[in-house]
Design goal:
Blueprint: E1 8-12, E2 30-36, E3 47-52, E4 59-61, E5 82-89, H1 91-94, E6 101-102, H2 104-114, E7 122-126, H3 131-135, H4 137-141, E8 153-154, H5 156-164, E9 169-172, H6 185-191, E10 197-200, E11 214-219, E12 227-237
Parallel strand pairs: 5-7, 6-8, 7-9, 9-10
Antiparallel strand pairs: 1-12, 2-3, 4-10, 4-12, 5-11, 11-12
Helix pairs in contact: 2-5, 5-6
């Protein structure tokens, strides 16, 4: 791709994984263990192992997450992991409504300013909710007294148009593309129609332009995996 033949700013769109990272389930989704430490081995080596939820941190949901027989993380073609990015900043609408669902009208307004969503692109949504992660894990989950979660997401109408636009994937800076809604309507619409995937818990989306950037999504290649952590990078021409 021509972007990589030019000087670029590289933006890390990934949250670091540690034991404080919030999960949908609400419990600690990550543990690390030092099995052999430097002082205990003649080669001065450290060997570690990790236990974690598959869907922790910045991660990919593959079609098999909600569709039996769908493609796993390992089945996603490499050429579908590098793409142009279309980025919507909807953060100004979240200020007064923590449960805001990005609407069909929001998408059409974005297209009126930036042009039609590109086929084969990855559509990314910056809600500003990721800023809560640096402040407080509980605030990021935003669970009420009844156990319901509250944060922004994408409406089914908006998702249907994005599928019509033939995007490769959709990503958001919250725990779930469906918001705090327990009914995974958007997950099923995106994942169960073609080979699209979803990226959640993205960082630094405010640093990408609406159009013109490229992104690389690099998941752990886990055979049969329905979800996997990713290292996600954005590339912007200097």
């Amino acid at each position: 791709m021509s972007i990589f033949e030019q000087d670029c700013y590289i933006i890390d769109l990934t949250h670091s994984i540690d034991q404080n990272l919030p999960t949908w389930e609400g419990e600690c989704g990550f543990k690390s263990f030092v099995d052999i430490d430097y002082k205990d081995h003649e080669d001065n080596v450290r060997l570690m192992r990790y236990e974690m939820f598959a869907g922790i941190g910045t991660h990919m949901d593959s079609p098999s997450h909600f569709c039996e027989g769908g493609k796993s993380v390992a089945d996603i073609l490499p050429e579908n992991l590098v793409a142009k990015a279309c980025v919507m900043d909807i953060s100004f609408k979240i200020i007064n409504n923590q449960n805001y669902m990005i609407s069909k009208e929001d998408l059409l307004d974005w297209e009126s300013e930036n042009g039609r969503v590109l086929p084969g692109s990855i559509f990314l949504i910056y809600t500003g909710w990721s800023l809560n992660l640096a402040l407080d894990a509980d605030r990021y989950r935003n669970e009420d007294e009844f156990g319901d979660l509250h944060f922004p997401g994408v409406s089914l109408e908006c998702a249907e148009i994005l599928v019509e636009r033939e995007i490769l994937a959709i990503g958001i800076d919250t725990l779930s593309i469906d918001g705090g809604n327990l009914e995974p309507l958007v997950h099923k619409k995106i994942l169960c129609t073609g080979s699209r995937y979803i990226i959640e818990n993205i960082a630094n989306l405010d640093r990408l332009p609406a159009i013109g950037a490229y992104v690389v999504v690099a998941p752990l290649k886990i055979s049969g995996g329905s979800e996997a952590p990713v290292r996600m990078l954005g590339f912007i021409k200097k």
